[in-house]
């Protein structure tokens, strides 16, 4: 069923506490934790606790939850005192998505080029 935890999902395991992560924020519906392979001085992932395979599935099935994730990216940026930052939802393998549980990357603390390449 949409949103149910998946046994084979790394981020569901982080939500369940079965895989350790450096959690920076948690709400009833979301978790934010540091990326294990940071691409910037601040690189935090914000995920819904419920499982949706990507941002498109999340937005279509649970728009209020998608809004929670977006609000949390802002809260992370505030806590990390980021003046400028980038929010990325890699969606599909061609765009670099490797974990199939919706997540927003919050990147900041260095200059970021556009287009990203
Ligand atoms: P994607 O490539 O799907 O957009 O992003 C997945 C992100 O998850 C990558 O930036 C990767 O470094 C991060 N990641 C993969 N495995 C782990 C892990 O076990 N713990 C944490 N904290 N991040 C992970
Ligand atoms: Zn999951």
TrEMBL record:
Pfam families: HIT. Residues 10-117 form the HIT domain. It comes from the Bacteria. A motif (Histidine triad motif) lies at residues 101-105. PROSITE patterns: HIT_2 (PS51084). PANTHER family: HISTIDINE TRIAD HIT PROTEIN (PTHR23089). This is Histidine triad nucleotide-binding protein. It comes from Streptomyces thermoalcalitolerans.
């Amino acid at each position: 069923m949409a949103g149910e935890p998946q046994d084979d999902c790394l981020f569901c395991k982080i939500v369940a506490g079965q895989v350790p992560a450096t959690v920076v924020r948690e709400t009833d519906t979301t978790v934010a934790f540091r990326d294990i392979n940071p691409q910037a001085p601040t690189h935090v992932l914000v995920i819904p606790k419920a499982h949706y395979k990507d941002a498109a599935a999340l937005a279509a099935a649970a728009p209020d939850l998608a809004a929670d994730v977006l609000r949390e990216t802002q809260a992370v940026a505030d806590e990390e005192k980021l003046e400028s930052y980038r929010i990325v939802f890699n969606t599909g393998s061609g765009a670099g998505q490797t974990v199939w549980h919706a997540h927003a990357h919050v990147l900041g603390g260095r200059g970021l080029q556009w287009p990203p390449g």
